[in-house]
Amino acid sequence: MAIIIDKHKFSFFFTPKVACTSIKYMCFEIENDRPFEPFMANGVMKYVHEAVYPGRRFQDVQHAAIKDHVRLAVVRDPIARFLSCYSNRVVHHKELSVRKAGAKLKQFGLKPDPTLEEFANRFGAYRKCSDSIRHHTAPMVNFLGKDPGYYENVYNLRDIGQCVERISQIVGRPLELGRHQTGGPKLSVDDLSPAQIDKLKQFYAVDYNNYGTYL
Q1: Chain centroid to CA 119: how far?
Q2: Using CA atoms, how far apart are residues 33 and 154, in angstroms rounded to an integer?
Q3: Residue-range definition of the domain harbouring residue 81
């Protein structure tokens, strides 16, 4: 998925649960010289994802139009992304609750509001119950493609400050990255069993194979 800023010949390719919301807010301010503020339209709240920078698969980007852009991306260990999704989307936003996914959960015989153990053990089935969960846990290559060479640089999330410095150079002014979508408990890989970790590594093998150097 790409944020394309033609006036600076700059494109940023983002991945859900990799500082995605924070980067979108920063890029909106680059383009508009003001912070983004959610707004109501036809009785529905519109946030930066829906209103400004909706998700697109890498293959759906018009790559010829940005061939002369500086292209950057940020990656994160896939298991850390998985844990972040569980913490923020499942625990905090309740996206696998009866209210939001009850019919699908019942169809697949799954418990609502699963524990981390339940979510990890039946990850594939839970992904079928929610478009949001499926989106936030999809492999990074869906959003970044499989070739790191497409980018001027690929940054690890822990080096996000270096990425912001590079974007500041491109746009010609100092930038700051805020923090968004931080709700939910803090989890670590130690909260998963060896079997669960192996299962997740198999699911995300394509990310490890293509971006392992940056993880």
Answers
A1: 19
A2: 26
A3: 2-214
